[in-house]
Input
Amino acid sequence: MSIAENLAHLHEQIAAACHRAGRAESEVELMAVSKVHPVEVILEAYAAGQRLFGENRVQEFQEKSQHLAALTDARFHLIGPLQSNKTAKAAELFHAIDAVDSLKIAQRLNTAAAALNKKLPLLVEVKLSHEESKHGLAPEELSALLTALEPLESVEAVGLMTVPPWSEDAETARPYFRELRRLRDESVIRFPKLTQLSMGMSNDFTVAIEEGSTCVRVGTALFGKRVPARTV
Output
């Protein structure tokens, strides 16, 4: 199947999951995870109507971005962990940073965004599993970080994200999605702009939608198995 056909099928699945959950399809955005894929798949997805993309490496996207200048209405989010020495370039390249888990990174992004005269939306990544390979803030540290972010004028926490342990059985992810929604619902009372929930990937996004996701991050189901990006 082509990327356009895959995209249409994904939107059908999203619509069905929204219907089951009693939600409007407009409440859920599809992010095309184009990391480690070549520029050509981004262009093909864009031609098919896709506008939101996720990348996880600053340097990789810096190379790709040279070939994407014409996509003026496309949005690119950084969805992977961010090193301190890459914050300035990340603030320059991306429309939002979706995986912030420390005040230090947020402060550096704030400084970089201020220099660029832009307001940078952030998602706080919360670690809900015990896997060492997973990144994110401990749930009990969330309130303190959100409080510390409030005075920063050039970044703004707009939601939460998490990555549950991978499983072929999508239902195993449901408790993690449910817990992130609980944390969001609890936090949004004090931090009213914290409305977004980025959760759900190719293998479990329909369950994530049922549990309140506002953005699902899909790579494999759209682009196929990941291959190393060619040098561009």
Notes: The CA atoms of residues 78 and 97 lie 5 Å apart. The chain is about 40% helix and 15% strand.
